[in-house]
Amino acid sequence: MTHEEFPTEHPALVTCGLPYANGDLHVGHLRTYVSGDAFSRALRTLGQQTAFVSGSDMHGTPIAVNAQQEGVSPESFALRHHEQYEETFPRFNVDFDNYGHTHEETNVELTQAFVRAWEENDHVYEKEIQVAYDPDADQWLPDRYVEGECPYCGEHARGDECDEGCQRHLEPGDIVDPVSTLTGNPAEYREREHKFLRLSEFQEYLTGFINRMEGTSNAQNQPREWIEGDLQDLCITRDMDWGIDYPDEVSGEDDLVLYVWVDAPIEYVASSKQYSERVGSDTYDWEDVWQDGESEIVHVIGRDIIQHHTVFWPSMLKAADYNEPRAVCATGFVNLNGEAFSTSRNRAIWADEYLQEGFHPDLLRYYLATAAGFERDVNFSWERFQERVNTELADVVGNFVNRALLFAARNFEGTPDAELTDETETRIAEAMDDYEDALNDYDVRAAGETAVALARYGNEYIQNAEPWKLDDEAAAPVIRDCVQLVKAVTILLQPIAPEKAEDAWAQLAADGSAADATIGDCLQAPPEHFPEPDGPLFEKIDDERVAELNEKLAERVAEATADDEDERDETESDADTTTDEDNTTMTEDTTDEFEPLADERISFDDFQALDLRVGRIETAEGIEGADDLLRLTVDIGVETRQIVAGLKQLHDIADLEGTRVVVVANLEKAELFGVESNGMVLAAGEDADLLTTHGDAAPGTKIK
């Protein structure tokens, strides 16, 4: 890999974490794939040779378990979902150059070749270990066939991961008090020989890798505890029938398959190989990317599989003499109305449902890609979706494109014969620089915002210039600038909203397509002639529509919750709450007094992302027209900030000056009653009890 700024002279490969072929897709799943698609499109806009690949993850115990419950083969079960994903992604304009799956021959052959290379390089050994066994079912219990207690944190865990507790990867034999998911009976541990990759041998290499790896900070920081701690070797085989066989000629074993996290990431290689074979190595050479030359491999994944891509995967590549990735970008999760998606309770916005409601896919793409930074969680609600579509896409982008092209077509039959003004040329050039900087920071959100910011500038420009009040000679330079701005906005918007960008490109009557345009085309002259636009790019969403959608969601969740409670009532006893000696619930005196604790935990990386500082209120004054708001100036050490806070009715204003407070310093700026607020002062409860420090910590002190 290189660390040159994009675009480089070397081929890039962008991949997305493989969707597990085990269920329907909802909008939370789509965030990773939309982000990966937008990033790969944006790299091409910079002029970077790029391929975008992924595939369905077809193996592992969950698929085997669910297939068994349906009475079908694991292959047919997984293929059904793979075909569904293959159809769904293009409907959201996620355009993979190749989308395969892990059970295809290309991946099978490459995976076994990887293992042979590990064997030849002495990176694999055999060891007898404890493996859970169900004597009633007469079956070994790999991964999710066994559940029990996590040996690290004591929480309930499944066989390969403590998914409800510390999130640690678990090896066979780790689970305490194992229980078979097949029969519900206690399992027993028996000795069994398995294969291990000498992961511990790569500890020094991984330390260097994580220090030079680019991408999001959560992907760079989360694995350090693993890499710098007691790195354990990885068991790479499982006792089951469904999966890729361990190479017989190497091991002599015919009843072991490879662990799903061996063959899954190798699909990145297999999928790029399939693409290369389809288009020819002169167009794209997969071997140059993975083995021979310098390359720019970028993995876009969900936050829950960081360790697999920053510990297991680079070791697997190194052990087989393949190139390491340049960057790993881990997206945050998507919540629904502030809570996690729950597929069991049907509390989700399903991919098919979104499209059936008649919404354009680019609206959701824009929301998912720009609602938060790559690694931050996104909270989806129909109200917030409506707000962003209406105020940003419709009012800003759509309004500017329509009014600029409409005026140009009606008054000049296209682009006026005038020179682009220096001011507008500079503004577009600055947007191009911001766009390029954002992509080199792996910030899809910031890249998308450049298009909206440029359209906002265009709206202000045309509004201030009022060309409808000018004669043609005076109006020509204004409209010439605006048409150029439309072209630039279209090019910069294309990675986020590709279909809508093509509509704008067609309205401009520009040659080729917006997808083929590069960033340099932002300042190339637009077409001389184009007709009046046939309508706005974006339609607003009205309040009645949002109310209808919320009602549908509430009804669906209530129905699923009722079904879930009915099932629990059939299996749970009436007295299953923890009680004290008086036979009253232990929390009886406090449950109505405080809000319940949030079920969803945040990661340590998320907490570290908050820049909490000690501040000192220097001045406080009311804001005209606002009953509750105060304008504060707060010294936070490195600078003095203006912050708007709802303290007016709850504190004596004169007493606030000199008070030490806790400030969220990296909160996005907001405007309240026409006053900019640059940060947030923290307070507890309805009485706004200000958080302060016990001692005399100086303003600017970071809170940890």
Short description:
With 704 residues, the chain is of the alpha+beta class. Helices cover 41% and strands 17% of the residues. The longest helix has 31 residues, at 382-412.
Q: Going across the major beta sheet, what is the strand order?
A: 3-2-1-14-15-10
> Might you state the CATH topology name of the domain at 111-258?
Methionyl-trna Synthetase, domain 2
- What's the β-strand tally? 27
How would you state the average pLDDT, rounded? Answer: 89
The top-level CATH class of the domain at 111-258 is Mainly Beta
Low-confidence stretches: 249-253, 567-596
**Global geometry:** globular
Number of helices: 21
What is the quaternary state of this protein?
single chain
Helix content: 40-55%
CATH A-level architecture of the domain at 111-258: Beta Complex
- Span of the ends, CA to CA: 35 Å
Name the beta content range: 15-25%
Rg, Å, rounded: 28 Å
Profile the largest sheet. Answer: 6 strands, parallel
Structural class: alpha+beta
Pfam families: Anticodon_3, tRNA-synt_1g, tRNA_bind
Function: Is required not only for elongation of protein synthesis but also for the initiation of all mRNA translation through initiator tRNA(fMet) aminoacylation.
Motif ('HIGH' region): 19-29
Biased composition (Basic and acidic residues): 529-538
